[in-house]
């Protein structure tokens, strides 16, 4: 067996067949829909079911970190994006861009992690592609996943649905993923015990929708963190959003790292968290449903939607622990690159 | 406006919003399904319609070449993969991995080319993602496209459907794409006038299926060329396939380049060609349908499927112009990397 990725593994011939059989099929065994044709053929959705479709590329370094790896991120990220629409994620595609010289053992670990995470999420890896780039023109491994889900009639979630009075929830502590990646990269020790939160949240979302049918939207606060996500939601719905700083769950290790480095924890990336906006009278039910799920134990109601001031346009405000209020802006430029 | 890609364009904040608005939405104007949520919600398929799903990443260099560019390849490649199942390609996702420093003007050209090609194919670009990697950890631009199509009840194409007696067709001359890319890269002049054949073939496929309803399969002979594709089909269906060398259309410029460089034109990559296996009594109808399409003018019947010898397993044979017969193997290792 080859020990590192070579250009021939991407050239469509016998070496490529070998890596597909020995690495990909070996890891994804039981995924019956992979048939050797260029497109996967999938069953007809139930009558009236719409489709949800999303894509994400993953370029994080390091490839392995506490709490996960690039493969787990790649499955969770797309599962979660599809699930935010209210759809049931069903099928994933996987596209690898490998750099010549990447260790085959690492690729096997990544594929095993993807297969395990797909099983947990209940999605099937049904089609894939592998390209190999010359040494020095990639970064070991990049992964694209795209996902297809089915969406029951009548479910209409989206940032534009938020309206004044709605409550804003998060499913758990913020900043864990971004600070974990940064600590790994810089070999910092202040975050000992911290782990990436990468997790498939589709089951949690389904449970919240069952408990709180007037949920307006889910959005995962990945790059740009909570601040960017709330600004997107405010902008899409033409509303103001006010967040209570005291109510936002952040681990002490994350807070400490952010203070030392001058980061705002509300702008740090998450991978296994959801922001959720819910009709006011269903907020408690949504919160209880989150807390009942293993990935929602630290869920909290953190804020509220209000009418925007016409002369100023939609804004996001943070009411601080000291009683002041400041505007919470989107991240400008870049804080911590390649966290996903 | 920024002139080159910066890390901040991938960080989820205001710079990323700017590149999305100024580059992607500007190019894909009219694609109404892009709404700012994390997943595109797509209409329900007609009752009984199955889905076809495929993915492909594109890493070709140079990014622009005679007859196309990486964007045109990225749309055509996935449109064609979805169409090989007999499905109507409908929706594409687009995932960019950009290298810091990549010129924004080049990105705009690529996006314009993708939009134009999507219009020709009749597919909508409905969801996307952009990542930026540090200078020296990418190669300007990599693109992943994934595609979803709808497949009418009863259509069952695939490599496993080939059976003894079937005819093998190609939709045009072989090797144009691979030799064009190599000539560009090495600044060779023997191929003057040669162009990449990158083209969306979904309409051609639909026309062939209408004319020859007992078509067994389509497969695009990209990496590994005709030789690898036929070996895949033989292996999937447990048959032998014999090709008449004289019948295979190859342009003189491609033949000349291959002779000079020691390449086998049957192992060189194509991007706008299909191999098609058809029931014997429908081969002429399929050929006529191909030739009536602008991308099938040079189509030809090039060979036949036969029973495999049980003691030897499925094989592909080439009957040469001199009357001999040799085994046509899959490409071993790599011939010409990063042609797509």
Automatic annotation (TrEMBL), chains A, B:
Residues 36-150 form the PurM-like N-terminal domain. It holds the Pfam family AIRS_C. CDD domains: HypE. Residues 163-308 form the PurM-like C-terminal domain. Transmembrane segments: none annotated. GO terms for biological process: protein maturation. Belongs to the HypE family. PANTHER family: CARBAMOYL DEHYDRATASE HYPE, HYDROGENASE ISOENZYMES FORMATION PROTEIN HYPE. This is Hydrogenase expression/formation protein HypE.
